[in-house]
Amino acid sequence: MNAPLLAVNDIGVRFGGFVALQGVTTEFRPGRVTSIIGPNGAGKSTFFNVLSGVLTPSSGSIRFKGDDLKGTKQHEFVHRGIARSYQITNIFPDLSVHENVRVAAQASRSRYNIWTNRNKFTELDAKADAALEAVGLVAKRDETAKFLAHGQQRALEIAIALISNPEVLLLDEPTAGMGPEETKEMVALLEKLAAERTILLVEHKMKMILGLSDRILVLHHGRLIADGSPRDIQTDPEVRRVYLGQNDGYA
Amino acid sequence: MTSPALTVSPSASARKPARFKSLVTKYRVPLSILALCLLPWLLPSKALAVNVLIYGTVAVGYNLLFGYTGLLSFGHAAFVGTGAYITGIAIGQFGVPWYLAVLMGVIGGALLAFVMGALSTRTRGIYFSMVTLALAQLVYYVALQTPSWTGGENGLRGFTVNKINLFGFEINFLDPVNKYYVLMMFAALALWLVSRILNSPFGAAIEAIRENERRARTCGYNVERTKLLSFTLSGTICALGGTMSALHLAFVALDSLHYLSSGMIVMMTLLGGASSFFGPFIGALVFLVMEDVFSLWTSHWQIIVGSIFVLFVLFLPKGIWGTFLTKVMR
């Protein structure tokens, strides 16, 4: 494949005396699903926060399409092409489903226009509806977002993240709190999305990860301890040792 | 997000907006102006009606920041007072024509709002409120300590506007009805501006920030800059209200800068309903009418108004107009 889309070099994150990430070096090539796994507190969310600009790493560098992202503010990440969802559902609860996505679409079009009527931006409405179509929420278009079922809220958040047409999509536990039926729908959605963009996934559901991922990274105590295909990871002795006794369903 | 104790979430709650509500929303500016045209004939005095205009404008401007951006400022009296003082000083000490004095007051208030906003929007929640309060008190003490400009504790006098020349017509500004309708044009302008802002893409951006600041940032909004613009616009509208009050009273009280005045703006807004466009105006109306009526009975009118306010916050958090729109008209 071609050059890496996103590359991190020797990333370290410290909170006071606590080391959340240490010496993480890796790169992500376009058009794949990479899952990041590890026990609780391994640094998965911290890693995601670094990749999406929420956290500035204490050391190391991130390059996206060859550009160093040092000093790039969090809100600029999405304009560059890196979008994300959160572990805890993160939507605009009191806005309608359509407006949730429309306002996200608007961020790349008009942020400070205080004069034009927003209804004149019809292309944003169309874009929002297309995104709702993609995640199967068209029927709920005019509902207030907080009244959606949990799984639908998660799908809405993905629609919000997708609207900028990101090259890299970071999904932090998209199936958190979902039942088997909702999970199945989400997996189908992710498979569809994976055809068109680079997806990074933090998940706990092993069966899902093994089925969906092209590549798996394993974090433990803030260090990258394994990196390979699902098959490699399943047989990796270090990973087995870390997960032993945790009964995550595959050891 | 702001701290829960301070956030009065003004939410659009109706799942499917009723037809009446959407009509009211669509024609909110013409309807509001129609209501304002009738107002002086429905109230006990013209002076009260002018006060409603002034504080209604201030509250609607304030609500841009509070209700729609979700930022609780305790310092908006600074912009009202600054607008009033600059207008008064410009007319009284420099003989500037009234309309230029109004413009100067608005620009001065806008600049102050920009500076105060730049300092305060770096903080969040209770800290934001406290910084706005502290900065506004700073403005109060500056006015207190510069009596040669502001009249200090005695307030600013000596800039009575008797006649106004408007589109070639000379209008006697001392006549209360004339005064009302001249000032109403400013109030109408403010309502139209705020409505436009709320309908704009920027209006959607501030609502997104109110709803979920983190998500808005992740969507690509520069939250700090958006808040600063909202703060500045809000302060500008409040400054316009201040200049109106200077023209009306031909006097600027030092108290107009006091934090109690800021608190009153917050109360009016909450009373009328921070979730709606016209709510704050209704809040100003009801507050001032209550003050007018109850202060005839007792000098302790604030106890009654305060109790009613508390009851509203506890049981009708959407305020008078917000409750009317969501409950009665559905």
UniProtKB/TrEMBL annotation, chain A:
PROSITE patterns membership:
ABC_TRANSPORTER_1, ABC_TRANSPORTER_2
Keyword tags = ATP-binding, Nucleotide-binding, Transport
Q: Species name for this entry?
A: Tardiphaga robiniae
Where in the numbering of this chain does the ABC transporter domain appear?
6-246
Outline what the protein does: Involved in beta-(1-->2)glucan export. Transmembrane domains (TMD) form a pore in the inner membrane and the ATP-binding domain (NBD) is responsible for energy generation.
Q: Give the GO cellular component terms, alphabetically.
A: plasma membrane
> How is this protein named in the record?
ABC transporter ATP-binding protein
Question: Which family does the UniProt entry place this protein in?
Answer: Belongs to the ABC transporter superfamily.
| SUPFAM superfamilies for this protein | P-loop containing nucleoside triphosphate hydrolases
User: Does the record carry Transport as a key word?
Assistant: yes
Instruction: Give the matching InterPro entries.
Output: AAA+_ATPase, ABC_AA/LPS_Transport, ABC_transporter-like_ATP-bd, ABC_transporter-like_CS, BCA_ABC_TP_C, P-loop_NTPase
Q: Say if the entry is tagged with keyword ATP-binding.
A: yes
Pfam families, sorted? ABC_tran, BCA_ABC_TP_C
Source organism superkingdom:
Bacteria
Q: Which GO terms describe its molecular function?
A: ATP binding; ATP hydrolysis activity
TrEMBL record, chain B:
Q: Which GO terms describe its molecular function?
A: branched-chain amino acid transmembrane transporter activity
Q: Which UniProt keywords apply?
A: Cell membrane, Membrane, Transmembrane, Transmembrane helix
Tell me which Pfam families the record gives: BPD_transp_2 (PF02653)
What parts of the sequence cross the membrane? 65-86, 98-119, 125-144, 180-198, 231-254, 266-289, 301-321
Q: Which InterPro entries does the protein's record reference?
A: ABC_transp_permease, LivM-like
Q: Where in the cell is it found?
A: Cell membrane
Q: What membrane topology is annotated for this entry?
A: Multi-pass membrane protein
Q: Which Gene Ontology terms of cellular component type are present?
A: plasma membrane
Q: Which residues form the signal peptide?
A: none
Q: Does the keyword Ion transport apply?
A: no
What protein am I looking at? ABC transporter permease
Please report the organism this UniProt entry assigns to the protein.
Answer: Tardiphaga robiniae
